[in-house]
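Something for you to look into today, if you have time. What I am after is a single protein written out in full by you. I want to see for myself how the chain folds. Could you add the entry underneath, on a fresh line?
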Amino acid sequence: MKKNDTLLDSAGPNTRLAHVGNDPHAYHGFVNPPVVHASTVLFPNAEAMEKRSQPYTYGTRATPTTDALCAAFDDLEGSAGTILVPSGLAAISVPFLAYLSAGDHALIVDSVYTPCRNFCNTMLTRLGVEVEYYDPEIGAGIEALIRPNTKLVHTEAPGSNTFEMQDIRAIADAAHKHDIVVTMDNTWATPLYFRPLDFGVDVSIHATTKYPSGHSDIVMGSVSANAKHWPKLEEARITLGICGAPDDAYQILRGLRTMGIRLDHHQKSTFEIARWLETRDEVSRVLHPGLPSFPGHEIWKRDFKGASGIFSFILKADAENMKARAHAFLDALTFFGLGYSWGGYESLALQVNLSDRTICKAPTDGAVIRLQIGLEDVADLKKDIEAGFAAVAAL
């Protein structure tokens, strides 16, 4: 049966995830789009080649497989177009290169993903872009930082590692008064829990490595833009020769089908553990925007539909024994692996390094431990954390 697009528009999130980005009738009834490997694409004649008058012209431009994933993200994001890139960092750097030129001024939130900061401080600066970091809690006050040459405001909510919330609508409204493009890294919430374009953001950035993949085996990023800013984004992707691989696109499409169910499980387990950590004497604070105790909770409650599986807590420690206590805690863990990234089925832990911050300085009341809560049973994860606390107490 052919899908009713109007019916799908009003469907629930899991129904949408089960049906976006595929048209079985276009592929002999098979429910998953095929993986099309391509570099060269043949044209029927010289005129068609000259005018590029067919849907596919070269493997870097698009394939039916990558188009299927882009269509799925456009549906989820409400965007005019989506590009696929090889990593989450590329999903940040490509739009920055698309919208910024030498002599421009860019405002970047200070709680940003560390590799993003490194890109800004190195490549963007070398290319003649002036980068300024701003307080994530600035809200509409960002207008005071806008200059005649400000061309881009980058947001991330919650912030990496310390989870500061941003008033995205207020920031976007202030920026748009001056015709400034607003970008947002929305990896934490995914389009299921927050749709940036609905809140005034122009370009939504996602490390699809995380929850869309869900299995810690794919590295990819997506960038989805509104109609005004889509042409420049697509032009930059083509000019740079950046593309997502069809095998990876197929795997992300497969992961999307269960993302809603997985996120719901991540969320429930994470809230249970975060609330439990608030009761522990070993913990100074829990940094999770979904908790009423968190300073940005009201913004999260107002704008977001849910929370994912990553947050941090502060392990009580004096400055002189902070590293030793953090290492003792981490080394005692079993179910929590020590590794970067998140969004997969397994739980992960690490000590956060905030030494590059300029405004949102590192907390002084202990070591910041970031947890990714996977799909394991909560009781087992609590036992693991208790083992970590016991190792700290034994120092």
Observations:
- The two ends are 65 Å apart (CA to CA).
- The first strand starts at residue 81 and ends at 85.
